[in-house]
Amino acid sequence: MSQQQAARVITARHRRRRRGTGDVAGRTGGAEGNERLTAMTGAVLLVLFAAEGITIAAVHSLLTLHFFIGMLVAGPVLLKIGSTGYRFARYYTGALPYVRKGPPAPLLRLVTRGSTAETRVPGARAGRGDAVELRLPDEPTVSRVHAEFTFAGGQWRITSLGRNGAALNGMPLDSEHVLSDGDSIRWGRRSDAMVSRVEIG
């Protein structure tokens, strides 16, 4: 076989391989599809957890509904674990679309008076309202939507959204700030306002 023929064979094989990869990406939605699936699953879980919380207030009269919602939660939880695990696997095995998206966000935890709220979803919001991803204890200085957490350049960042203000390590939050493991967030301008400890990873 001449060098020219060998080059044609290698090129043909490369094209077939790329076509196969494209077919898989088309069926699974690729990195963008994985991101959408993870976000949608998180939204479904948020609704189910909110409904579960409502039934707890009248658990004796809503016991059947409480158990039913509890069973419904299992499916989305497994799906979210699977989609997140799949992204980790694809990124660390060098799949180009996932590498271009950057490393998956490490787990972000807010530890507040013994309770913990956590997320891996960039754009997650924290507050005492029902429509947030990071639910904080119901305190007078905590707004319904108090802050937003984004992930870019391998770092979690916080932006204050609440009317009551917030402080990071004692310094007022007036713009977006990078978070580090062990940081403290005070939810309000008052010195006695509730504080959360940041845990990353």
Report on this model:
This protein is α+β, with helices and mostly antiparallel strands and 201 residues long. The protein has 2 domains: 74 residues; 93 residues, Tumour Suppressor Smad4 (Sandwich). A hairpin with a 2-residue loop joins strand 7 and strand 8. Helix 1 runs parallel beside helix 2.
Layout of secondary structure:
Layout: H1 3-28, H2 30-57, H3 63-92, H4 96-101, E1 108-112, E2 115-119, E3 124-127, E4 134-135, E5 147-152, E6 155-160, E7 167-168, E8 171-172, E9 177-178, E10 184-186, E11 195-200
Parallel strand pairs: 3-4
Antiparallel strand pairs: 1-2, 1-11, 3-5, 5-6, 6-9, 7-8, 7-10, 10-11
Helix pairs in contact: 1-2, 2-3
Q: Which properties best describe this structure?
A:
single chain, 201 residues, alpha+beta, Tumour Suppressor Smad4, 2 domains, six-stranded antiparallel sheet, five-stranded mixed sheet, 4 helices, disordered N terminus
Task: Briefly say what this structure is.
With 201 residues, the chain is of the alpha+beta class.
